[in-house]
Hints:
The protein is an alpha+beta fold. The chain has 13 helices and 7 strands. A 5-stranded mixed β-sheet has the order 2-3-1-6-7, sandwiched between helices. It is elongated.
Amino acid sequence: MADGSRVQRAWAWLLSPPDEVLADAAREGELRVAFVRTWLSLLLLLIPLLSLAADPDNVQHYVGLTVCVGLVAAAVVLERAVRGGLHRPGLPFLTATLDVSFVSLGLVLFWLVGFPIVTTNSRVIFEAYFIAIAASSLRYDPRVCAVAGGAAMAQYLALSFGTWALFGGSALDAGVAEYGRFDWATQLSRVVMLLAMTVIALAIVERTTRLRRLSTFDRLTGLFNRPYVEDRLATEVARVDRTGGGVIAAILDVDHFKAFNDTHGHAGGDAALRHLARVLREALRRSDVVARYGGEEFLILMPATSMAAALEKLDEVRVSVGLSDIRLPRGATARITVSIGVAGGEGERLGKDDLLDLADKRLYTAKEAGRNRVVGA
Length: 377
């Protein structure tokens, strides 16, 4: 029963949605992997070319050349697709599995040229599994590392068993002098090495994601910080330019926050900011992005939202903030109001800086008009 429960938890983990916080990092990682894959495949292409120049009669070099040419072609196609904006939830799993499968393909081709011992005892191509598993850690998703490592172990075990079953006996003698004899102890040891590399990749992802989170969130409010939200806005603006639609950028500012701090102290001001962050998280959609932009200013991004819908929702937020009590450190309560400037939507497709500048100007318009209001187009 306990084993079944563990399997269910592992399956649920693999099928869980990707971490939205790390979505941009994952896209950057996929692009980085695509770039590295292309140049690494071009670099690997030099090995069979140099080998053929030195020994043109060796059939193994032609096998290596075939594999490397196929790898270069696939790498170029994948990089162009990723640079073109292709990024789906399952893409990292697919590309990580393809990276592993190309290594396995390179090994299985030695069956076709009469050197099956190289499939199991290769001292060059096998090491490429480690590169494929290590590259999976650049995608900021431990599940991708697990899938890449699992695919490498399963495929190599299948190759070992297939070689033993199909070529057992004298057929494995070709190449023994150079590569050694087939034995299961060596094959299982290699699988253990792949498992160890997978564990290392998982540890790398855990460490990098933790550091990424520390550099992404504001400690006081738990919201995103300014560098993250500006990068996210740039991504959304690029998406709008590519696919159409619009994105709303709203700058929210706490009215008379200095006077609030003077009255209730900095601890009271911190309590007000934490309270405001909580109200914003509860009131907005999961797809909306809320960040502390600086001091008492907050930046809200609302993808795929019209100006009319954004103004209606943000006015609801404004009312909710003004009607909710803030619990101060010494048990007292207080209230705040906010002013919001809104820009964007399909009618205002602007660059990142122009969008922020327009939202900021409308925020000041709201303040000059008496505060505690929302101003949009």
